[in-house]
């Protein structure tokens, strides 16, 4: 693997505040290849990707970009409750990120709910999205998802668990937790699916899922792989919901052949 790249940070203006972004530029690789943009999960942020972006940049020879959504990590607080349309809304915000980083072309990778956002972005930014990769994404609401969230909510009753969340989100930690729990258990999400968004995706797609994912069954990646309009593949990894922490080497080894395909350039 090439030398590990350094992180470079910046800020993106949005109508409601500033969003923190980071980029990792490999020491070796082809500058002409599309950068990889990462979208974090419901409790995530840039810092919770840990070493994965640097390792992915070094292994793929591509620039990797990650950002904290408004309300998360180092970004400004979200102005009010999270709307039930937040997954689809991220495709609108992505216009600002593309402009800020000058992204004529890109590859998108989303983890968990970030995977749903990646699907929305791939379909609505089809002019620039060369490939879509979802990791542990939800394509519809199922009982396992809701049960897993409730179990996690109970775990966060422990002050130590909330302190760990606050380490990454600061004073926004309680908002982050409630946005996750309350949105998924709202009436608006009872029949939520990504079906319409999936049908707009024409770029190559790789749907990755952990065999032991506690927040979604294998029906989730199957739905993604069979509903997108473009070519699609599915990969099942021997892990749970967070492959980039549980089995990062296996995840990167799964991503690299897909990224090497001409269509993903």
TrEMBL record:
<dbReference type="InterPro" id="IPR000073">
    <property type="entry name" value="AB_hydrolase_1"/>
</dbReference>
<feature type="domain" description="AB hydrolase-1">
    <location>
        <begin position="35"/>
        <end position="244"/>
    </location>
</feature>
<protein>
    <submittedName>
        <fullName>Pimeloyl-ACP methyl ester carboxylesterase</fullName>
    </submittedName>
</protein>
<dbReference type="GO" id="GO:0016020">
    <property type="term" value="C:membrane"/>
</dbReference>
<dbReference type="Pfam" id="PF00561">
    <property type="entry name" value="Abhydrolase_1"/>
</dbReference>
<dbReference type="InterPro" id="IPR050266">
    <property type="entry name" value="AB_hydrolase_sf"/>
</dbReference>
<dbReference type="InterPro" id="IPR029058">
    <property type="entry name" value="AB_hydrolase_fold"/>
</dbReference>
